[in-house]
Amino acid sequence: MSTKTDTPHEPGSAADPGSDLGAAGSQLSTAPQEEVTFPSLGPIGWARWFWRQLTSMRVALLLLFLLSIGAIPGSLIPQTSIDPVKVDQFKADHATLGDIYDKLGMFHVYSSVWFSAIYLLLFISLIGCIVPRSWQFVGQLRGRPPGAPRRLTRLPAYTTWRTDAAPEEVLGAAQRLLKKRRFRAHRAGTAVAAEKGYLREAGNLVFHVALIVMLVAFAVGSLWKSEGGKLVTEGDGFASSLTQFDDFKSGAFFDTDTMEPFGFTLNKFEATYERSGPQKGTPRTFRAHLTYYTGADGKEHRRAVEVNTPLDIAGSKVFLLSHGYAPEVTVKDGRGKVVYKGAVPFLPQDPKNLTSTGVVKVPGAQTKDGKRNQLGFQGFFVPTFGGKGSGSMFSQFPALDYPVLTLTAYHGDLGVDSGLPQNVYQLQKKYLKQYKVKGAPLAKMMLPGETMKLPNGDGSIQFTGIKNWASFKITHQPGNGLALTGAAAALLGLSGSLFIQRRRVWVRAERVEENGVGVTVVEMAGLGRSESPRLPEELGDLAAALEPDAPLVPDAATGPESDPQPDPVAPAADSGSEDPAEPTDSDGPAEPSEGARA
After folding, report:
1. Distance (Å, rounded) from C-alpha 118 to C-alpha 64?
2. Contact predicate 268/289, CB 8 Å
3. Dist CA 451 CA 375 (whole Å)
4. Which residues pair with 227 in a beta bridge?
5. Calpha distance 262→150 (Å, rounded)
6. DSSP 18
7. pLDDT in tens, 200-254
8. What is the CA radius of gyration of the chain?
9. CA-CA distances (angstroms) from residue 289 to 228, 237, 274, 297, 325?
10. Phi and psi angles of residue 131, each rounded to the nearest 5 degrees, phi first
11. 0.85 exceeded by pTM
């Protein structure tokens, strides 16, 4: 038995589409064949040329690369859809660069014209590339493996030997063996043609279809999404109405009238922190206890929400984002009437120890004479006061170990009646005057239960207690399930296209006369879509499995011609000539020690 394993590269070889392999070497890939034709000078010709370029795989890869490059500014430059405050600050700090970025759409990358153009071109390119490949693959599945080429010796993996078995017996045994090894096999003249590894092309197509699915999912999620934030103090709640959100943004096709009715109440916020060691102050428990309902008359349920465990409700997700403190105050005006009573959320300035700032606005206050006198208080709150003796306000631990509230009082016009929107966490001091005592601004550090009196009998403010608050993000992202399905399919398809090898095997058996004795010459050859050492190994294994049904003739193992010299390979120009009478490259019997090898 003799074996040849090589990778021909000269004209007329297995790698040459114009070689005498013919149909045997064709259609090992579903890639569309490119015709070397030039479009005519006209709209139709140029449109055809543009379409062929757009739907080629190299252009699809180029567009995918451009899409990934285009997403980089969206990660490095502040985006209006995420943090408009940072965008305004960036423009203020970098006036010239900010104008350039604004003209280029860098502050809204994912909705910019150029990013959308790349996205749509990639979408069209993938569809135009996948559809013809899919039809071609379906045609290959319905067809049969092509017949054996005339010269099996030119294939990358090849072996041959002589046997006394009849050709029909050898071919029948070869067909049964190949089918047992899950090859698609059939008889074609004096040879058996078989093929295996169709799932490689299926995986390739599944991968590209999955990319389209993910692009569709991202488009659906962008156009129909909604996202809003809400800060809720213990005892308060939220209902799914547009007016209930502190901030809200949505996709172009999202209809606020179709929002599912649901709501929740923050019953209690639970937080514990590391008390010692290098991780002192690190949160250990961060949990919001909610009572939620769905529908106008839905039944109430209780659920604890943590940072990485959102609440799924009515097609939306409620994420826990952050936590802080809301000092409770009671404000009386000059008439002694309570004009404000409640908890005021203070925003942390120190995310580790929760040193916080906030304001109290009292628009309904009056003087003791009944005159309008709106009150405003600018304050600092620290859960664990660390500035004793220094006069400064800072916290040294995030838990409520030593809470202190410092307030500075103002009076006048808060500007809330101007009709212009205001930040509830900032005090507009343009029309306000600061209270002073003996020429010094009125400010006081207070412990829970203490009161600060205002000059001229204008009232007082009492620090009565502390509540926790938690901020939530309520999101509706309809394309998440579709994107997950596409990602999983892409991984499966990519695995199939990388690890499955598509290959073809032919077994030919013909009766010839040698030295006046009739023998059957058995030839076996294989061809793969790409070079792989597994193909010769598999061919050798098949030859060894077939040998019991086609044993070597005794003279082939011991004859003087046991070291044959193969015939020279015919050049490509002879590929159209008739086959020689001898179907193998050997003039004599083969040495059995050569076997089928890689």
Report:
1. 8
2. yes
3. 15
4. 249, 475
5. 74
6. T
7. 888 888 988 898 898 889 888 888 888 899 999 999 999 988 889 988 888 888 8
8. 40
9. 20, 12, 21, 21, 16
10. -60, -55
11. no
